Amino acid sequence: MAGPPSTFLLTLRNRIWRVTFDDAFFGDYRTERQAMEGIADAQRKLASPARIVRAEADRP
User: Fold this and answer.
1) Can you name the residues that pair with 56 across neighbouring β-strands?
2) What does the alpha-carbon distance between residue 11 and residue 45 come to, in Å, rounded to a whole number?
3) Model pLDDT for residues 45-58, shown as the tens digit of each residue
4) Helix/strand/coil (H, E, C) string of 1-60?
5) What is the C-alpha to C-alpha distance for residues 27 and 19, in angstroms, rounded to an integer?
6) Do the strands 51-56 and 7-13 form a parallel or antiparallel pair, or are they unpaired?
7) Is the whole-model pTM more than 0.70?
């Protein structure tokens, strides 16, 4: 029986996109596009795809 799927979490804080993978730091990116490209590179190396969750913490 397989466990829950792995998760990438994108969080926008102070105009920086922070990415974590299963609650571990993965990287900080200046744009959402760069963050998604980093995730895409990592996804290609995973045995099974991870889900992606996007959360914005900045409020105007």
Assistant:
1) 12
2) 22
3) 887 778 888 887 76
4) CCCCCCEEEEEEECCEEEEEECCEEEEEECCHHHHHHHHHHHHHHCCCCCEEEEEECCCC
5) 5
6) parallel
7) yes
